[in-house]
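TEACHING EXERCISE
Course module: macromolecular assemblies
Task: Read the component lines below, then compare them to the predicted structure of the full complex.
Student: A.B.
Group: 4
Components provided:
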Amino acid sequence: MLVLPLAIVWLAAVPLALLDGRRRWVGWLAVAALGAGFLAMLRLAVAVFARGPVELVAGGWPAEVGITLRADALGVTFAVLSIGVLLAALAYETLGGVHERALPALVLFLATGLTGLFLTGDAFNFYVFFEIAMTSSFVLAGYGRRTRELRAALIFTVVNLLGSTLFLSGIAALYHVTGTLDMRGIATWAGVADQNSVLLIATIIFVAFGIKVGLFPFHFWLPPVYRDTWPAVAAILSGALANIGSYGLIRFGADLLPRELRFAAPALLILGAASVLYGALQAVAVRTASEALAYSAISNAGYILIALGIGGPAGYAAAILFAVVNSLNKTVLFLAAGLRGWLVSAAFAIGAFSVAGVPPSAGFFGKAALFRGGIAPDDPALSVALVALLFVGGALAFVYMFQIYQRDFWEREGAGQTSGIGSRILVLGLAGLVVAFGVWPEPLLAVSQQAAGVLNGGRP
Amino acid sequence: MIVLFALVVAILFGTGAYLMLKRDLIRVVAGIILISNAVILFIIAAGLTRGRAPIYPLPEGEPISDPLVQAMALTAIVISFGITALLLSLVYRVYTTRETVDKEDLSLAEAEDERQLEVERRA
Amino acid sequence: MTVLTRVIARLLLPSTLITAIAVLVKGYGDVGDGFSAAVIAAFGVLLQYVAFGHRAAARALPLRAMPAVSFAGLLLALLVTFGPVLRGQAPLAHSPAPGADVIYLGTLELHTALVFDLGVFLLVFGFAVGAIDLIAGATDRERGQGPL
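Instructor-supplied answer key:
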């Protein structure tokens, strides 16, 4: 059962790579395969949440010798989310007409990489699947073939390759210090190793994932890439691929190296706050919708970092909840920004309200969880600063989202061609999901708490 | 031995980083190749053990080398090989559409495009 | 290129391929695997490009089939990976299992790991030859000879 989601998407990706993806039936075939993978993933997730983690060692080797595949609550949460986002983006692109033959296969290879890395219990295997996902996204970023996309793809590839090599050297160093690649073994041995060397490794890994999510000092590549790629590709990059960064920060920080994460908490809070404010201010200043959304992504990555800095079960649960909600918001917004028509502006408005954290959208509960985690009774100055930051960030988000809405949906009412009804309904359905999670947030809250419970640093 | 490895890794990484800052895209690719090779060497250095090849039957009483780093290094080599080919084909595509492999030229062409878009938007 | 290099390049191709096959099939119990075999074989092909030029070498090779070769190799490797799952074993479990008797074909040991390596060989070989052709073709088009 553990390998089924992985096997479905991987085996489907290979023959699809030889077919011409511009044909409609090939696109739908890919959607069907990805849908099957998504269902298998959901089944696995239900089993994991009901009965605890599932584990498997490749090749039938004893544990610690072979490569472990492990599905726990945190991994399956992110896997279901990312595959769902990919499914939506692929269906969107198929409805609108695929322009390049390789697109469906690339999305499936990306799904393979994401499924694999969320379901692995081995640090090096994580890197391998991470590279499968990254490589397909490098090609995806060039989708569209105009100079803008090519340049975006070039920036994206070069910067992220640097991030990958940093991450790889972090893994090699972890192996040197702990003598194992199994995540559970690393968590055990890194806790007793020399703190200075582990701290250096943790910093390297933090920088690598910081580049992936586009945190403040490492964000420079992100705005031109999100601005210049195709809407569906931008949705994939910000809704699915950025999850690697948030998952990596949570897994390697809160699960594998919790001691170092606690040690670095003040730095994380400062960086997170800088990211939130910088992203929000830039988003207010820029003029195109996609650029504002890109800066908004930087701002939202800061919230995840703040939640990690707060720490403890409540902080980690908030980080997971926020990552999930943020990924949904960004998917809705990027997809809606590429469409025109009356259903679309409603969908965009819902996504915008969710980013600003206005009820009854899912974003409200992301912010609420942060509030709850951030109020530390023993440190009133910190609590006040956090609440003020959350308030300012939310207000700025409201301003830039309203600006985009005004510029792109009010003033250009009727301008340009109305998009197909199928894509509009799809985007509205996704927006409906955001509202549904806002109206009935209990399942999402329970999921994030259970996912935080599997983390080594998240146990009370 | 460790110092030697550290020195070589540092030189490779530094040279690669220097090349990545160049305007010529081919040099940027070369810089990335050098950096990924530095990391591969770093992996080998991270698990450096001297001994016989770890293939059955294992020699009695002799030290054997750690096979895991070799496997990791090989995997990293394969990945960097694939990525390099991808990157080169990307640069080639830039060259065929823009007739240039210079970062600055590409930015200029981009700015020109943007100006034209702005004019169209105003019209 | 002189006549001598061409003759040597032509003579070296079969022996390179045989070396590659040897490295491939001995991979199970000795030094070697599908990846290094494919790289050796691709070097043999690269030598043809160097000696005969892009056009002549490309004409002699079934280049159109290379993507198909690559993906067939990947599919083969994946089938070996996920095949054992159907029989209730872990993915990548090989038969005969470690310690069990291997079927011999001469000195060649038959084993499902060999099929996996063959998949890797095809994948890497197809990819490498495609990449060589792309880059060699780029220099050709540069000189104004136009695409093939």
